[in-house]
Amino acid sequence: MNGKLPLSALLLVRDETRDVESLLPALAFAAEVIVVWDPRGDRATRDAAERLGARVFERAFDGFGTQRRFALAQCTQPHVLWIDADERPREGAAQAIARALASGGPAQASVLRETRFLGRRIRFCGWQRERIVRLFARDAFGFDDAPVHERLVPLRDDLPAAVALDVTLDHDSYATWDACVTKMTRYAAAGAEKAHAAGKRATLVDVVVRPPLRFLRQYVLQLGFLDGAHGWLLCALASTQVFLKYAALREKSRLGSGAAERPEGRGR
């Protein structure tokens, strides 16, 4: 493939020097790479991104949604590839994206993501055949302001359904146990904050019932037991995150109103 694609690759970083040094060369097909660096992180990460040709912006992290939205505002190309520092596009991604953009490009396109947990690929636990929208037209979508699990927000009502790209991302976000525990506690706290801000409340029933239900759903219904010991650990970690989230939400509910209402929707 000759030349650069009319594409902005967008990622957020803090202390991911090694990831940046590995990922950015794999994004060389994009006309620009936008990196938003949290200044509380390692300066070496920013230096690596600049050395590898990215346009780097400094902004203190205040939630994934708002940080991602800021990054999107810096993009200049007609299409955007949203990617995380711990993800890698497999060989052939550039050619598949080029074919998709050849006729003007889709409003949105999904990719396949395969995740590794403690060094092993997870094939079940609800993570199998995970398709996520990661390529989109810059003028068609924005990001919500969620502190965690941010989502794309369509800017028009007439957008067509996502096109499935022949692109796979390898996701290695849980390489060590320390990384797993850190992410679990951070996401639990952010999830409780998000739910409370949305007016949701938790009771003791949520704290007691939701964690084992999450474990049963992932380990039994979503066949996590077929992933062996890694599947059991992953499902146990997920249920612990649910416990921490609803325990924190219950405390916020108790302190904030003195009366708990059962939250709507399912926990994440």
- What's the CATH topology name of the largest domain? Spore Coat Polysaccharide Biosynthesis Protein SpsA, Chain A
Shape type: globular
Task: Classify the secondary structure makeup into a structural class.
Answer: alpha/beta
For the biggest sheet, the summary is: 9 strands, mixed
Structure description:
The chain has 268 residues and is an alpha/beta fold. The protein has 2 domains: 5-174, Spore Coat Polysaccharide Biosynthesis Protein SpsA, Chain A; 177-257, no CATH class. The chain contains 7 helices and 11 strands. Helix 5 packs parallel to helix 7. The radius of gyration is 19 Å and the shape is globular.
Keywords:
268 residues, alpha/beta, Spore Coat Polysaccharide Biosynthesis Protein SpsA, Chain A, nine-stranded mixed beta sheet, two-stranded antiparallel sheet, 11 strands, 40% helix, globular, disordered C terminus
Quick overview:
This protein has 268 residues and is α/β, with parallel strands linked by helices. Helix content is 40%, strand content 25%. It folds into 2 domains: 5-174, Spore Coat Polysaccharide Biosynthesis Protein SpsA, Chain A; 177-257, no CATH class.
